[in-house]
Amino acid sequence: MPIRPENRNRYPDDWPEISRAVKDAAGWRCACTGECGRGTHSGRCPNVHDQPAYGTGSLVILTTAHLNHQPEDCLEANLVAMCQGCHLHLDRAHHRVTAALTRAAALEEAGQLAFAAVAALAVPTEPQLAPSLPAAAVVPYDVPLPLDIPPLPAPATTPKEKLPMARITATIKPVHDSGTVCTHPVTSTGKPRDAKSGCTGRTGYVARCSACTWRRTSKVKAELEYVRDSHLRSHLTAPVHANA
Description:
Layout: H1 15-25, E1 62-66, E2 79-83, H2 84-90, H3 92-109, E3 148-149, E4 166-167, E5 170-176, E6 202-209, E7 215-218, H4 221-237
Antiparallel strand pairs: 1-2, 3-4, 5-6, 6-7
């Protein structure tokens, strides 16, 4: 992926050599095994550098991704060779938060919005994500995605049965001031379009996890999209906790 001018000094001087070594180790094939969260490939992504991409047919350009979005962290466990599709999807929540901060700062400067609405997102460096699964060597295509929870093993005295895989999701829904979900048509400012609908207007959003009691609310949807992805990543390497 092209390096933004404002981030160029965050990469080490030998970054081209480091990036090429990661791609060489991956055999110039995308090493994403589900870290991107796309859910469109089972097991390791089949895309190969300079070959047509699966599903779209566009030319694959292999990149080197930082799992924690920190260009300074070039440890082997933090670097994964990814096609441009997986890399962009891995960074989608991070890019949304950055864009939300930029828009809010511009509106604040113009006197149109209180910057406090997204102040919770302001951090001195790029946000840290929960650890992801390390990239693996070539693996079979029938390996389930990391967010699939395998079934419990059957007792030793009975034949093993294939059970359906449980999928962990976290939904984000708009809510009224009372906390109830809003399904009414509203304007861009959250006010109801139909005064007779009984809607009091949307005042924020709520995110809930299907696998635990995790719940977050915010007036900024982009913030919830970021923390939701971070929470889902926490299920990859740790048991389900209510306050993860």
